[in-house]
Amino acid sequence: MARRQSPGGPPKTCYNGSFVIPLFLKKARHSTRNLAQSNESVAVPSKGGARPWLRRGPSTQLLLALFSLLVVNAGAGDSEEVSRFDVGGHEGTASSGGTYATGAGGEGSRGAPIQIGGQDAPTLCESEETFDVLFVGNSYTHYFEMPQLLAGMAESAGCSLNAQLVAPGGSSLAAHAKSAETLSAIGAQDWDAVVLQNFSQLPSQPVEDVRSKSFPHVRTLVDAIVENDPNTSLYFYVTWGRRDGDSEYCKTQNLVCSFEGHTAALQRGYSLYADEFQGTLVNVGATWSQVKRSRGAPFSHRDLYGPDGSHPSLIGSYLAASVFFASFFKASPEGLSYPQGLSEASARYIQRLAGNRPLSGV
Q1: Whether 346 contacts 319, CB under 8 Å
Q2: CATH of the domain at 136
Q3: In the chain, what is the straight-line distance between the N-terminal and C-terminal CA atoms, in Å?
Q4: Residue 35: its pLDDT value, please?
Q5: DSSP class per residue in 292-348
Q6: Cystine design at 123: which of 158, 252, 299, 301 (Cβ 3.0–4.6 Å)?
Q7: What count of other Cβ atoms lies within 10 Å of the Cβ of residue 202?
Q8: Residue 122: domain span
C-alpha cells in the first residue's frame, strides 16, 4: 500500500512498477474496470480486450479504418496533421455504443489503449509502492480509457499506478452520492487519491445554485472518502467548456455562451468545491484554453473534441491524462508513452503543455 498523505496534498513518494490488477477482476495488464454498471455500459471484455465480433481480417480492418477516418475528420478542426495521424483509440468503458471501436489506438470499445514511445523516458519513481486512485465521474473520465492512458504513462516512467473508475455515462455527483456501487467502490480499499468529476454543466451554474444544489452531494461523497481513510487525498477534475458554449444554459446565463465563458464558469464552480472540501484542482480545462490561444500547437482547439463538441477526442483524453500525471507525480510527463494513433508531434506538445502547468493544477 502506498505511503499516505493528508487530504488534498501531493503524494510524498513516487512509485515504481507497473499497472496493478484491478480489485474485483484479474484482467489483462493495463486493465481498468468500471465498478458501476449502467444501461450505457458495455459487457466486460474477454481477456484480449476485443469483442469476438471485432476479430477481423485485413479487408475488414481496412474498411473499418477508413470509416474511423471519415467519422473523426467530420469533427476535426483545420489541422492537416490531425486528419492524417491523430485518429486512433476508442470511446472507452461505458461509452454509448462504442462507436469509435475501430481506431488504431484500441482493440475494441473496452480494449486497453496501445501505448507507444517512452523507450527513453526518464525514471521518475524509485519506490516500489503503488499509487491507488479511484476516479468517480462519467464519460468525460472514461472516454478513450483516460485512466488507462495515465497508467501507461506512469509505467513508462517506472511508476506503479492502480486506477479504478466508477464512471457511467451521464452521471452527476448527485447520482454517485446515491449510488450503492459508488459508495462500495470508495470503501473497497484505502485509496491514495479519489478524483471527483461532476456532470459537465452543473459546476458552471450560478454560485448560489452550486452551493445549494451540488454541495450536499459532494459532502456525502467526501464524508464517505474520509470515513474510509482520512489520509486519502481529494482531487477535483476541472473539465472544459463546450466547444461552442453551453447552448442550453446560454438562454439564462450569458457567461456560458462561449467556450471561454463556459470554461471560466466551470473553473469557478470547481474552485468552490475545492475551497469548501479542501481538495486539489486538476485543471484540465485550463490547458484546453491554452490550446485555443496557442499559435504553435500541431492541432486545433476543435481537435480536442469529438464530433459532438462536448466529449474529448483521443487528443483531449491524452491531454487530460497528462495533466493528471503531472498533478499526481509532481513531474513533467515529457518523454513518456502515448497512445498509438496519436502523432508524436501532438504527444510531445501535449506533454510539454501539461508539464508547464503549475504543480497545484490551478
Answers
A1: no
A2: 3.40.50.1110
A3: 28
A4: 47
A5: HH-SS-SS-GGGGB-TTSSSB-HHHHHHHHHHHHHHHHSS--TT--EETTS-HHHHH
A6: 158
A7: 17
A8: 1-362
